[in-house]
Amino acid sequence: QSALTQPASVSGSPGQSITISCTGTSSDVGSYKFVSWYQQHPGKAPTLMISEVTKRPSGVSNRFSGSKSGNTASLTISGLQAEDEADYYCYSYAGSGTFGVFGGGTKLTVL
Amino acid sequence: QLQLQESGPGLVKPSETLSLTCAVSGYSISSGYFWGWIRQPPGKGLEWIGTFFHSGSTYYTPSLKSRVTISVDTSKNQFSLDLSSVTAADTAIYYCARQLQWAFDYWGQGTLVTVSS
To answer: Which residues of A1-111 form beta strands (DSSP E)?
Structure first.
């Protein structure tokens, strides 16, 4: 099972909005609602930002939102802040046999 | 407050078995949820290793399935990871986490395991 495809890097200025894509296949992202997104700061464990494509856990800023269209899921961060600079990973359930797969990760730089 | 804490040797020799334990506090793992292991080679991305359900079902990533075993000790409220025949490619930070609807909502701090002679 190949990793989900994410852009290696994205960047934006404070206050702007950015979107990170996560492209899979009809066997994973395209078939299930179980797509999640994680933020990871250097030297820290990942933190769940979005689950089940669009759900935001308690405590996560409403500047973070998720969506999905076909085989591609997306994470949008609005009103960029310096603290958003981190690595972001998507993850999708992939059905029986493979069960789960992460994206390769995207480094977000806040200019 | 749910907390997870990984523990185990930080150095393992090639061809040996890597064994890690995840101690859970603040929740009884026998009560429900899925529980999983994820790893991250230095400077690289995350890789899902495997998951178990409290009822005993286990799920492993295909590329590691032949070498991985996840087990649970409900009396100690902890679960374990065994990865056999390790090579340098298995050097990574290993995380344990709780899974809810296939999302990892609580993570341990991670433990670095280096495979080297």
So the answer is: 9-12, 18-23, 35-40, 47-50, 64-69, 72-77, 86-95, 99-102, 106-110
For B66-100, the pLDDT digits (tens) are 999 999 998 999 999 999 999 999 999 999 999 98
Which DSSP letter does residue A3 get? Answer: P
Q: State how far the Cα of A29 lies from the Cα of A93, in Å rounded to an integer.
A: 7
Give the separation between CA B32 and CA A62, rounded to whole angstroms.
Answer: 29
- A17-36: pLDDT as tens digits: 999 999 999 999 999 999 99
pLDDT tops 90 at residue B53 = no
Q: How far is CA B74 from the centre of its chain?
A: 16
Residue A21: count other Cβ atoms within 10 Å of its Cβ.
17
DSSP assignment letter at A16: -
Using beta carbons and an 8 Å cutoff, which residues of A are at the interface with B? 1, 3, 32, 34, 36, 38, 40, 45-48, 51-52, 57, 89, 91, 93, 97-105
Tell me which chain B residues have a C-beta less than 8 angstroms from the C-beta of A91: 46, 48, 102-104
pLDDT, chain A, mean:
95
User: Among A52-56, A69-73, A97-101, A102-106, which stretch is predicted with the lowest mean pLDDT?
Assistant: A97-101
